[in-house]
Queue: 2 jobs
Job 1
Amino acid sequence: MNKKDVTLVAIILIAAIAFMIPGVFFKDSGKALIYVGKRLYGVYDLSSDTSIHLDNGHGTVNDIEISGGEVYMKDATCPGRQCVRSGHIRYSNQSIVCAPAGIMIIIRSGDDNEYDAVTD
Ligand SMILES: [Zn+2]
C-alpha cells in the first residue's frame, strides 16, 4: 500500500464506522408516548433531549424532561407528586403516571408501533 491507498482505506473505515454507530447505539432506543386524558398527546424519541411543558388548564402543571435516553417528571404541581417521585424510566413498557393531571408516560421500543394499545 502506498500512502494514498492508506488514506483511502482510512476514509472508507471512518465512513463505515460513522454509518454503523447510530445503528449500534440507537437501534433499541425507545420512544416516550405521552397521553393526556387517555389521548395521545405526543411521541418523543428518547435519543433526542427535550422538555415538555404540560398545562392542563386546571391548575396542574407538569414538566416532563427527556435527557440522556431517559424520561422523567422533572416537576409537577399535583398533590403528592407521585409522578415526580417515580424517578427516571428508560425501558420499554415502563411508565410514569400522574393521576391528578391525567397524564401517562409510557416507553415503547423503537420497533413497536402499537401506540394505541393502551388499556385502563
Ligand atoms: Zn403528578
Job 2
Amino acid sequence: MRHAAYRQILNVARRRQYQTMSLLEFYSRRAELARHKVLALRHDVDTCNRNGVRLFFDLERGFGVSATYYFRLKTFGMADVVTQILEHGSEVGYHFEEPATLAKRCRITSARELADEANRKRIDQMMTRNIQRINTKLGTPIRSLCSHNDFYNRRLGVENHAFLSDRVRQRFNILFEAYDPSFKGCFDECLYDVTDNAWLWHGDRSPVHAMLDGVPRLYVLTHPRQWHPAPIVNTRENLQRLFQELYYRSLGLKGE
Ligand SMILES: [Zn+2]
C-alpha cells in the first residue's frame, strides 16, 4: 500500500510534467527552473531502516528520477545503501545534530548556555570533524546539510540549524541548509509527512493534491522510518528516547 502511494506520487509527477529531482539539483538549476514545474524530494533517514529507504529508492530508480537523502551519523552505517544512492546520481547529505549531542553530553539545560562562545566553538569543532570523516568515507564532498530535530531540541526550545556557523559552511563549501529561508523561499509549497503516524500528510495535503492543483514548485519531505516501520528498530529507538527523556527530566529540564 505505501509502496503504491509513493508510486502514485511519482506517476502523477510524470503525467503532469513535473521535473522530479534532488534538492541539490534544484539549487544548482534554480534560476532556470523559475518557470517550471518541479517536485523536489527530501528523505530524512533517522533510523537504520533499510527497507524504508529501499521503498523510496527502488521506485525512484525505476522512474529514473533523483532525490536527496539526509543521513545521520548513525544511519551512514548503512554503507551499501548510501553507495547505491550516490551511484544512481541522487544526493547524499548530512542530517546533523551536534548542538543537541553536545547539550546532552555536557548536561546543558538552556538554549542560552548552549549558545555561549565556548560551546559554539565546540559545536564547530565537532561538525568539522564529522563532516571531514563523512566526506572521506563517501569519497565525494557533501554539498548540503539538514538539521535533525531531536526531542532534546524541543526541550531546549531551539533547533540545531540555529548553531550552524558560516565558518563551517565556508570551510566545506556547503551550498545550503535544508531550512535556510533563502532556499525554502524558492518553493511555492512545502509538504511534510506526519512523523508519528505512518503515511499521512500534514494538513491532509498530499503532493498528489498539490500537483493536481498545479502548484509549480514543490518541496516534499518524507521520513522512510514511517513508511516502512521496522517494529524492532522503532521500539528500541522509542525506548531509548523514553529513558533519555526521563533522565534529562531528572536534571530539571522543563517538560512540555
Ligand atoms: Zn531527523
